[in-house]
Predict the 3D structure of the following.
Amino acid sequence: MGLPPPPPLFLGVFLLHGIVKPLWGELVFIPPFIRMSGPLVSASLVGGTKDVTLSLAALQDKAGLLPVPACGVLHNEIGDWSLTVTPSVVRPEDVLEVTVRLKRSLQGCSSNETISFPESPCIVQTLLVSASHNSSCLAHLLIQVEIYANSSLAHNASENVTVIPNQVYQPLGPCPCNLTAGACDVRCCCDQECSSDLIELFRESCFTGVFGGDVTPPFDQLCSIQRAHGVPGWFPFLCVQSSLANSPFLGYFYHGSVSSREHASSEVYLHTDPKDFSDFGYKQGDPVMTVDKTYFTIPQVSLAGQCMQNAPVAFLQNFDVWCVTDLEVYQEPDDIVNAKIKDGAMGGIVTPKVTYEEATNLDKFITSTETLLRNGSAPRNVNVEEHYIFRWNNNTISEINVKIIRAEINAHQKGIMTQRFTVKFLSYNSGNEKETSGNPGYQLGKPVRALNTKGMNVTTLHLWQSAGKGWCRTATFKPILFGENAFSGCLLDVGIDESCTQFRENAAGLFDSLIQATHVAMRGNSDYNNLSDGWLKIIRADHRDTGAEPAVSGANGTCLDVPAQLNIRILFSDAGAVEGITQQEILGTETRFSSVNWQFQCGLTCEDKTDLFPLSASVQFIKIPAQLPRPLTRFQINFTEYDCNRNEVCWPQLLYPLSRYYQGEPYAQCVAKGFLLLSLLMLAMFLSNPWTRIRKAWNSATI
């Protein structure tokens, strides 16, 4: 049949030869030993490959010992094998790619055409690739060949199209655990590619259920199912007589329709140009077009969280996204000043008005920076923020204003840059009025409206949005969105010589910067100029004087009662509906501080350095029911057997369609249908034969 595997001693010599050689800085094959199971294998020759020649040889064993390789005779082809050597793309002067390939096909491997996967290998051979210089062996690659006849190679491929059964009538996968084509899947006893000897190894651990191949198991409703216990007495009257082919498990692993594949014509023209209907006006969701009949694109974040650089802008759809970009691959976008955008009318063009600003804090946008200093390298500008405001009128765009915030960095600077892109569509006649968060109730995801009665320009509540190293001094703010619980934090640097009073004031000042408002709006459209138009005062619990020292002061480096966490709780409820849409309003807002005792952490010696104190802020939205639940009666408390939530028999729902538990139709409509049904029953009873005889008997008795 062939050669046995190479002796362990010979393999050990080659493995040791391949491992120790890189330490000497000489030639070495990576890997030094390959077990070949296909018609092609590849390896790399690493080291000083100049003036190095490679040869291929087939080794024949004698009494279990492989001969000592000789490098004097060079061969690139031997028997059914060929050797190909190509320089590496990465380092062609030091690395060579070595490929050994089987020249003949495997169609004649299997003598029995009915056996697709024989248990004996088709080709067993030992190959040796040698690297030499002036007939001196420098490195060796040992290849142990064991190739089995594969049905896809040994037999002609069928031209027939695979017929996919309709999973409504037949299981789509009769053996779902068969995941690997051409190989036996362990613990999958229904895999036809597993021999009987292999199945015996894991027969006791086979997959069960539908995944293990039982795609049509008997279901509980069959009359043939006999259960020892748990079957009610009325089961024989309501069971189903059906074959296992009509199983409720059909389509268990796949839902949908099966469509036949249509052969595509080679003459079909693929229209790849974007569709442009902007000349007849934009509709909500239509892509904004340019005069070149291309999409106007701005980087956006996909559903998978990736940043798409060429995402089209949709009409009347706002977004605010952050994109992370590597400075090494960052490419400066085209100048927006030269963009010409269709306004939605025939032949109309809008040119964006661009204003530029310089970024003041690079740590907010660029992290993990590394600057490569080179002589003569000029700085370059990168856009860290781009804000677009589109003015619309009916189905056209009347004006586009763009504000770009740039930063100047070194031309060879490395690091990660965080960019922000915003798009907002505003009406052409809207001024500088503040944006509403709903009309009249709040919309989910809109900012919570806030107001400061002391004259400060405050419109909402905030949380931290840390960037860079997470320091509080570089953190920015993000608005609190209605209905979305959130948690944020930052790090406050504290010096060892800093007083506890100053420490507490700094922490409290950072928390106060988040909640600068005194009132929050009850509704999403409360008027900022009218305090009586649904404005609620913020309840500040546990508000203490940060400058007052506690009664018991700490030791050196220890501060007591330091504000560490801010908890914001917002109560809201449903306040009715407008055109079938539920309107929600805020009932109250409370802020509460949590304090900790903090000690400066230093090692063996406390040097003049700073430590980091974590601050955190969280917001929680609590929904209050519009009506309090009805309290339990004494009967419901004492007699739990009548509780529908604890028992299978529910007497209060005996006349379910006429009870308050039925929510399918209005209660008045259910009562009307009930009275109509009752009248029909009474009419049928009066017209029935027994009632007629009773009436005749009554009439005869009265006469």
